[in-house]
Write a structure and sequence with these properties.
Blueprint lengths: L10 H19 L4 H8 L3 H14 L17 H12 L14 H12 L5 H10 L16 H21 L2 E11 L25 E11 L6 E8 L12 H15 L3 E5 L8 H8 L4 E5 L10 H12 L8 H16 L2 H11 L18
Parallel strand pairs: 1-4, 4-5
Antiparallel strand pairs: 1-2, 2-3
Helix pairs in contact: 1-3, 2-3, 4-5, 5-6, 10-11, 10-12
Length: about 375
């Protein structure tokens, strides 16, 4: 079909269908067969036969749209008001949580406009206006939106610094993986929930630190270092400042360019030894991410790709199996610059080609 079944609900879709029917009328006039017309317009033969019959009885006017089958209960102006009310959140309208359900929207429409709509009618109306049923993103209550907006503005200048220096804009983050895998959707018979057998008692067995390196005009790079956890209780399980030092040094050697680093406020990132190391490197400039703003770190997208794809629903048998799976996933992502660029694009952090008059290497406290 040229257009989906049940379409034409909006004025634009009705006009589109009308253009197809009038195009068919022109082909009727030159004597084309129904099968040929259906193939050219990518519609069914029965539709063409129905249009031919309507054209013979009423001419082109018989093929024109007669308008919507029924009037909308909420006009575009009223729907704009409804959108403003929905944007306030469900809590603002007296519900105990932040979920918007069809029944709650129906109640809101009744309260605000004194109109009654069916649940299916509300769903069609929302879809028609570009709404969909989605899983919301979580944001911490402790976030300072003004300071985050200011940081983004400053890091835009940091991106300009990276472009001016010919440097790489490098984002760092680390994550842990355990023998219990994340679960994602899979196919199963309706009414029979699929079951994945995993280890019942498990702890984090692997940590990975990753650097996403981007520079104007070049494909992004992904540099990572895994760390197997030592099972001894007294052994350190997380990355030490020396591990970060060695990772940054190795990245600098591999990239052969200055580095503008962006990472979070982890205690190890702010320790005195690492600050002293950074102060002594003229190729390194550091920016700290604002608190409670993980969406500004593109490496979070790398972890999401690993957990939703490569490690999801996997019954890990040994720590080696887990390590091999994570390594394979990271290696696959390394050779997919479109995925790396997508992770960076999601944060809206870019490198601007602007040449400042002076450039200095500094560390943001």
């Amino acid at each position: 079909m040229r257009y989906p079944q049940g379409g034409g609900l909006t004025a634009g879709r009705r006009a589109f269908r009308e253009r197809i029917r009038l195009e068919a009328a022109g082909l009727f006039a030159v004597g084309e067969s129904s099968a040929v017309i259906a193939r050219k317009l990518r519609v069914s033969v029965r539709s063409v036969q129905r249009w031919r019959k309507a054209c013979e009885s009423g001419g082109e006017n018989g093929l024109r749209s007669s308008g919507p089958t029924s009037l909308q209960l909420l006009s575009d102006r009223l729907f704009a008001v409804l959108e403003e009310e929905l944007a306030k959140g469900a809590v603002a309208h007296g519900w105990p949580d932040q979920r918007w359900t069809l029944s709650r929207i129906k109640t809101l429409i009744g309260r605000r406009f004194h109109k009654s709509m069916t649940l299916s009618g509300i769903a069609k109306m929302l879809n028609r206006h570009g709404w969909s049923h989605q899983v919301p993103a979580r944001r911490a209550l402790e976030r300072d939106e003004e300071s985050i907006a200011g940081w983004v503005k400053d890091v835009a200048a940091g991106g300009s610094t990276a472009a001016a220096l010919g440097a790489y804009l490098v984002s760092e983050d680390d994550a842990g993986f355990s023998m219990t895998p994340p679960t994602t959707r899979t196919w199963s018979r309706r009414g029979h929930t699929p079951v994945i057998r995993v280890r019942g008692r498990t702890t984090r067995c692997l940590s990975v630190a990753a650097l996403l390196c981007c520079r104007t005009g070049e494909r992004p790079h992904l540099i990572n270092r895994p760390r197997r956890h030592n099972r001894r209780k007294e052994a350190r399980q997380s990355f030490a400042w020396t591990n970060y030092r060695d990772l940054l040094t190795a990245a600098h050697r591999q990239l052969v360019a200055p580095v503008v680093l962006v990472w979070d406020n982890l205690g190890t990132h702010r320790c005195a030894a690492l600050r002293d190391f950074a102060a002594g490197q003229d190729w390194l400039t550091i920016f700290q991410l604002p608190a409670y703003a993980p969406e500004l770190n593109p490496v979070e997208g790398i972890w999401s790709l690993l957990r939703r794809g490569f490690t999801a629903n996997t019954a890990f048998t040994t720590p080696d199996h887990l390590t091999q799976t994570v390594r394979h996933g990271l290696r696959t992502i390394q050779y997919r610059p479109d995925l790396l660029q997508g992770c960076l694009t999601e944060t809206d952090l870019t490198i601007h080609n602007r040449q400042p008059t002076t450039t200095t290497h500094r560390q943001s406290q």
